[in-house]
Amino acid sequence: MTEETSRPAAPVEGEQHEFSAEVGRLLDLVVHALYSEREIFLRELVANAADASDKRRFEALTDAAKTLPPDASIRIHPDKEARLLTISDSGAGMSKEELAKNLGTIARSGTRAFGEKLNAAKPEDRPSLIGQFGVGFYAAFMVADRVDVVSRQPGSEEAWRWSSDGKGAYTLSPATREAPGTDIILHVKADADEFLDAWRLRSIVRKWADHVSWPIVLREGEEDKPANEGTALWRKPKSDISAENYTEFYRRVSHQFDEPWATLHWSAEGTTEFTALLFIPSARPFDFMEQSRESKVHLHVRRMFITDDAELLPAWLRFVQGVVDTEDLPLNVSREMLQSTPVLARIRKAVTRRVVNEIRNRARDAENAAGFATFWENFGPIVKEGIWEDSEYRQELTGLARFHSTHGDDPVTLDEYVARMKPEQEAIYYLTGDNPGALANSPQLEGYRARGIEVLLLSDPVDGFWPDRLHSYQDKPLKAAAQAHADLEKFETPAQDGEAADVSALLPALKDALGETVKEVRASARLVGSAVVLANDGGPDPMMRRLMQRSGQSLPQDLPVLEINPRHALIRDLAGKLAAGQDISVYAQLLLDVARIQEGDALPDAAGFARRLTTLLAGQG
């Protein structure tokens, strides 16, 4: 403890004052409802101390008597034995009248009154005041059963003590303090022991006040040790920041170890003022898909951390890390205010636009195509959620998206797809599934490949949803290849090997054997090398059905259609067996099981499948 800090005594006698009715209600609100985390009290008191220090520094510009001492800082001193926690500063201090006015009446604030003076000051002389002294102060009663405030103003030899248990009244009495400033002394409650541990206090400072511009000093044992970084990197000119500085900050705020793929650092001025320092990672965290969908960009108000739950970016940009710091919100902004304030809505809109522009510009940079390909592999599945849920950015995100297709190994854009569509082709075709490798070998593609029609291969979970929401691109409708087989009749039929069997009797026989498990059995015009395939006429495709099953949703009762290839050797053989009077019911079940396996579906009766297969194999032996 420095010589400036006073030591509390037992409850003092002095002038008794009742809190205003508003303060009485406020105290109950603060202690029981306003803050969800008790540790917030330290952020509020540090903010007030920084405010008071800024105020004195500003006033010293015109009054040399108020010059700050060279070692001015904010000091935190836990005393376990005495159960006291003291937060001290060398700031502007308060007179007896100001103690009564600022701490005894709601909506009266030294900072707020001081703000009027700032209007006449030069911009470079205006300190960045953190909070509204008053409301945040009362958070001290969340962890203290009594709070003493000892304060002395520069140029005065008189100090005063404000003391209260937060239950409706406070006392004012003369005190002593060797130097100007303020001590806030908390008599810590029995259930708040953690706030007397130096390690816990340090972690709170690092979380909430690491970038406050004033040094914060924490007493640990018999030593005073620095507790905060003291420099808000995002407030520094970009010319003063090295790539190493950016990377170090990125790793600290994101808890990741890669290099940022993109760094966005800018200040917005005008109706809403804020500074942002955002990073797009170059690697995906290993647990990324299990994380929550909310954006965790940190919101700061005048360098003071407020929350990472402000959802400053939409969920489809939740991989972006960093900080947004604004002057236009109060420090004690509530969760409800965060959801409704127009200020934050404007910030969200501006920040989202800036990030999307950065991604779009990098997508257009042909010289760094490999870098964007890596980004898309890491975060494309997340960005595509925006195509589904964000009408404002849907077309823009679709334009920069990359997709695997039957055209080759390199991902393609929809613009590239449209540019090489066949002259008679009217739609963009896609196939959804869980596994990219299985999709590329799907029998659903055989008819399209045989006719030279490119099909997009979509294997991310969101791919089951966004095509229906997008509906079309460049006036070309998007169609699921598994359901658009009728379109193949518009194209020239390719030559195929083998003679087609007469399946006029086989089709109803297979339907009778399969009963109500299929809606129809029909000959296929799209199969080339496979014997069977499933079709869904108007119902959800296989991937959508699996997604619905995993989420517990009820499935439509639409039954699949089993298509058979009359030119396949197996189908020709079955037609011959049926003509010879043999029972083909076991083969019918196996054909349906094979079709399901090809689609990646789980078999409803795996044991039955194994039994039928082994029976046939044994018969052949």
Automatic annotation (TrEMBL):
Gene3D superfamilies: 3.30.230.80, 3.40.50.11260, Heat shock protein 90, C-terminal domain, Histidine kinase-like ATPase, C-terminal domain. Its main location: cytoplasm. Residues 547-621 are annotated as: C. GO terms for molecular function: ATP binding; ATP hydrolysis activity; ATP-dependent protein folding chaperone; unfolded protein binding. The keyword Cytoplasm applies. ATP binds at residues 44, 48, 89, 94, 102, 109-110, 132-137, 182, 335. Residues 37-192 form the Histidine kinase/HSP90-like ATPase domain. Keywords: ATP-binding, Chaperone, Cytoplasm, Nucleotide-binding, Stress response. InterPro entries: HATPase_C_sf, HATPase_dom, HSP90_C, Hsp90_fam, Hsp90_N, Ribosomal_Su5_D2-typ_SF. The keyword Amino-acid biosynthesis does not apply. It is found in: Cytoplasm. Residues 1-335 are annotated as: A. One of its GO terms (cellular component) is cytoplasm. Homodimer. Belongs to the heat shock protein 90 family. Molecular chaperone. Has ATPase activity. PANTHER family: HEAT SHOCK PROTEIN 90 FAMILY MEMBER. This is Chaperone protein HtpG. It comes from Acidomonas methanolica NBRC 104435.
